[in-house]
Write a structure and sequence with these properties.
Layout lengths: L1 H23 L6 H23 L4 H28 L4 H9 L7 H36 L5 H5 L2 H14 L6 H11 L2 H15 L5 H26 L3 H11 L5 H10 L3 H31 L1
Helix pairs in contact: 1-5, 1-9, 1-13, 2-7, 2-8, 2-9, 3-4, 3-5, 3-10, 4-5, 5-11, 10-11, 10-13, 12-13
């Protein structure tokens, strides 16, 4: 069991550590350029490549999409309740609880923990969450107010292209399939390196409150996903992917949106940083629990 967990988590730690050490050693990393490359080219190609080559059943895709919406809505209510209870700015806490890091961390962990079939389900979760993040999330954070710009986001466009391929069982032309597979292949490594760079670059002073709220984000995400998975009757694989994706730390994008909007970036930085470091200890335990529960 320990060897399996190490095999899953070690690539995540090592590749993110490359980005972290790169910045700590004083080297320049073009975060803005790489982020744009990931969001505008890499991720849409990963979506098309994964869904066009996977054997995921449209019904399973729909179940995961519905589960993602249900978990996200519940986590929004959790964030709103905590913000009122702890007298925290809801415009900071609610987006942090709504949108976990299902891309940078969720996709690679799902790939190594659940294989290609699990990655396809994780992509379904990530797609639905990304639509919300790049519409509702950007509006809540104040980073974007133009509805037209939201509609032409490349990730949303890739969803529109991927759904007919999935639902109608279509195939991409070979030249196009090879191209999107090649471009999509760079996405997960770059996501992890950029995650490490972001963690090394973020500065925060509110560690105590960040640790508390970060821990609650991880625990509530896993608990809510477990309940939603049972309610929807998901398969063990789908429920495992849902729990892992929902238990991810606060997305780094929340920090980038807060910086762009000038809306409490230090508070958001605290939530991102603390929840991510806590996740490095929590996620292996969660994965071990899931594997044991499926065996028993």
């Amino acid at each position: 069991m320990l060897a399996e967990l190490f095999a899953v988590m070690a690539p995540i730690f090592i590749v993110a550590g490359v980005g972290y050490c790169w910045v700590r050693f004083g080297h320049v990393y073009p975060t803005d350029f790489v982020t744009r490359l990931i969001l505008n080219i890499g991720t849409p190609c990963l979506v098309l490549s994964t869904l066009s080559n996977s054997e995921i059943d449209p019904r399973a895709f729909g179940q995961m999409a519905a589960a993602c919406v249900a978990v996200t809505c519940c986590m929004g209510l959790v964030g709103l309740s905590l913000s009122r209870l702890l007298h925290y700015d809801w415009k900071v806490l609610v987006p942090a609880y709504l949108f976990p890091n299902s891309g940078n961390m969720g996709l690679p962990i799902s790939l190594y923990a659940f294989g290609e079939e699990g990655l396809a389900l994780a992509v379904a979760f990530f797609l639905v969450l990304s639509v919300g993040h790049f519409t509702v999330g950007m509006m809540l954070s104040g980073a974007e107010h133009s509805f037209r710009k939201l509609l032409i986001n490349p990730i949303i466009i890739s969803l529109g292209l991927a759904l007919p391929i999935l639902l109608l069982d279509l195939e991409l032309p070979r030249w196009l399939g090879n191209t999107v597979q090649l471009l999509g292949g760079m996405t997960i490594p770059l996501m992890l390196v950029t995650l490490g760079v972001s963690l090394a670059s973020i500065r925060t002073r509110q560690l105590g409150q960040g640790m508390l709220l970060g821990a609650l984000r991880l625990l509530c995400g896993a608990g809510v996903a477990w309940g939603v998975g049972l309610a929807l009757g998901l398969s063990p694989l789908a429920q495992g992917v849902l729990i892992m994706q929902s238990a991810m730390p606060v997305a780094v994008l929340n920090y980038l949106f807060a910086v762009r909007a000038g809306r409490s970036p230090e508070q958001v930085a605290s939530l991102v940083l603390c929840s991510t470091f806590l996740a490095f200890g929590f996620l292996p335990l969660l994965l071990a629990w899931w594997r044991l529960s499926t065996v028993l």
